[in-house]
From TrEMBL:
Lineage: Eukaryota, Metazoa, Ecdysozoa, Arthropoda, Hexapoda
One Pfam family here: ABC_tran
Name of the protein this chain belongs to: ATP-binding cassette sub-family F member 2
Gene Ontology molecular function, alphabetical: ATP binding; ATP hydrolysis activity
Record carries keyword Nucleotide-binding: yes
């Protein structure tokens, strides 16, 4: 049995979380409403700015932002909660390469624990300390790098294609 400590803070991200934002609010308004202990707008602007939203992007309605920019609002929100544990489910959907690299840097700087579920080999190769493969109802620890796993998958596909009966 696993028990959660009552003081443990968990932040959860899933690929559709940005769809739950109030589109009529600006990122600044959203964050100020979410964290009323931050009284100064300029302080909150700096916090949001760390996630790549600057200037007009901070004060326009969220509906005017791209999906990737909306994800940045969510990452700022989650980070400001100062979680002990991050649960990230497909966090790179809707993100450009620059944002993925920034996310990798933020994950590597994070002092807490993290569970990352992703198909993004680029992100995994930058942040993973352990790799667990989930297939056929089981989770198995992969004993090598994500690039080796990618090669393993390639060989598996080629083998399956070679053994498939040809259609003539």
């Amino acid at each position: 049995m696993i028990r959660k400590n009552s003081h443990l803070r968990i932040a959860r991200y899933h690929q559709h979380l940005h769809e739950l934002l109030d589109l009529d609010l600006s990122p600044l308004e959203y964050m100020m409403n979410s964290f009323p202990e931050v009284k100064e707008r300029e302080e909150m602007r700096k916090i949001i700015g760390r996630y790549g939203l600057t200037g007009r992007q901070q004060v326009c309605p969220i509906r005017q932002l791209s999906d990737g920019q909306r994800c940045r609002v969510v990452f700022a929100y989650l980070a400001w909660q100062t979680p002990h544990l991050l649960l990230l489910d497909e966090p790179t959907n809707h993100l450009d390469m620059e944002t993925i690299d920034s996310l990798a840097d933020a994950i590597n700087d994070f002092d807490g624990g993290m569970v990352l579920v992703s198909h993004d080999f680029r992100l995994i190769s930058q942040v993973a300390e352990e790799i667990w493969i989930c297939e056929n109802g089981k989770a198995t620890k992969w004993q090598s790098t994500i690039l080796d796993y990618k090669e393993h998958l390639k060989q598996k596909i080629l083998k399956n294609n070679d053994s498939a009966p040809s259609k003539r």
